[in-house]
Amino acid sequence: MRLAFTTVLSSLVGLSFLAHPAIADEVIQTPTLFKPISEPAFSIMDFGLLIIWICAGIFFIVFGLLIYTIIRYRAKAGDESLEPAQIYGSEQLELAWTITPVLIVIVLGLITAGRIVALDKTTPPEGSLGIRVIGHQWWWELEYDGYDFITANELHIPVDQTAFLTLQSEDVIHSFWVPQLSGKTDLIPNRTNHLWMHPQETGLYVGQCAEYCGTQHAHMLLRVFVHTRADFERWAAEQQQAADQVASVDLGRTTFEQTACVNCHTVRGVTEIGQFGPDLTHLMSRTTIGAGAAANNRENLVAWITNPDHFKPGARMPAMKLNPQQIELVADYLTTLK
């Protein structure tokens, strides 16, 4: 019954995030509230269905009584000369339509309060994976507790383990939302919020900043990869390594180091002074650039370095005014950061 209802409901009211044209050829999960694969998304879905069923019951009862009244007391032949029976109040009826709504509101309030208490965790559960998420205009910074590395825009977590996220903002209000994994939680400047998820299926799940945060709010996407434990540990071990030193791109690395790139970006093992932009140590391990603005390949990297506004008008990264040869060299270097 629940599956049939959610299937019909999702077809009528389905929530979807359209892929950017540059990455539309990739096979990705379509976000939906109606196919949760994690706690607390399961609980949120169950609570939503409960509210819908209660409201539907109220609607059909009221609508049924209205139809009954229209039919039962409709005008009949010969009624023109008769005066309807006059009823001056009914204590039983008045008590019924007063007490019943009050009881419904109390029940819904108690259920809601219980769910909030159960889902609102402010301390990491035992054995959870801690991740610090910092919202920027317009990208996500991700720092893994105990693993000593920072990445961006693509969250990797193991299946069947709680991921406990500490949410902070560097500039304006953002909102972290991956519908199939958890509820929506805001990232607010000078405040720390928390969110947790316990996925039960591996796969790729797509989310979005759900609070308008400026010009490129629509291009502040988020990808969550849920791995098996072995695959997650393998990915984390790769992320902990310093950047590859490939001799064939020394000239590109030198160009990168001698321009303003290093003022914003860190490449561990090369330069670690940049804090303003995403960490690029393992840039090519990510599937997109610009928080989902374009597929991560050499062609798009060249276009991004030339003019980030091409993909993301208003992006905080300026066009570096490099000549075409320098851009090609830097792009060659960046493609080795795997």
Q: If you had to describe this structure to a student in words, what would you say it looks like?
A:
This protein is α+β, with helices and mostly antiparallel strands. The chain has helices spanning 2-13, 41-72, 91-119, 229-240, 250-257, 261-264, 298-306, 324-334, and strands at residues 38-39, 129-136, 139-144, 149-152, 154-158, 163-169, 174-177, 185-187, 193-199, 203-209, 221-227, 288-289, 294-295. The protein has 8 helices and 13 strands. Strands 1-9-6-2-3-4 form a 6-stranded mixed beta sheet, with helices on one face. Strand 3 and strand 4 form a beta hairpin. The protein is elongated and about 100 Å long.
Structural class: alpha+beta
Helix content: 25-40%
Q: Choose one word for the global shape.
A: elongated
CATH class of the largest domain: Mainly Beta
Please state the average pLDDT score: 85
The CATH topology annotation of the largest domain reads as Immunoglobulin-like
The whole-angstrom Rg is: 27 Å
Number of strands: 13
Please trace the helix and strand order, writing H or E for each element.
HEHHEEEEEEEEEEHHHEEHH
The major beta sheet can be summarized as: 6 strands, mixed
CATH superfamily of the largest domain, please? Cupredoxins -  blue copper proteins
- The portion of residues forming beta strands comes to 15-25%
Measured between the Cα atoms of the first and last residue, the distance is: 47 Å
Q: What is the strand arrangement across the widest sheet?
A: 1-9-6-2-3-4
For this structure, the quaternary state is single chain
Spans of at least 5 consecutive residues with low confidence: 1-27
Query: Into how many domains do the coordinates divide?
Result: 2
Number of helices: 8
CATH architecture label name of the largest domain: Sandwich
